[in-house]
């Protein structure tokens, strides 16, 4: 369970911002978005292949 302790001199908004930053850093939100709906194995392969192509195209042009 992810949690952040609110310090004595800290406002709720600041603690919430710290919590959101922590969740973003650990990748919790992206994992939740990924699991919101079922993805067929063929769709997963297509998505990963397209991501690899984009990455290759991006780094392939830098010479």
Structural topology:
Blueprint: H1 12-26, H2 28-34, H3 41-60
Please summarize what this structure is.
By secondary structure, the chain is an all-alpha fold. It has 3 helices and no strands. The longest helix is centred in the C-terminal third of the chain and has 20 residues, at 41-60.
The structural class is mainly alpha
Strand content: under 5%
Mean of pLDDT:
88
The overall strand count is 0
- How many discrete structural domains? 1
Shape: elongated
Q: Which percent range fits the helix content?
A: 55-70%
Radius of gyration, in angstroms, nearest whole number? 18 Å
Biggest beta-sheet profile: none
The arrangement of helices and strands along the chain is HHH
Describe the structure.
This protein has 63 residues and is an all-alpha fold. It has one domain. The chain contains three helices and no strands. The mean pLDDT is 88.
Key descriptive features of the protein:
3 helices, 63 residues, mainly alpha
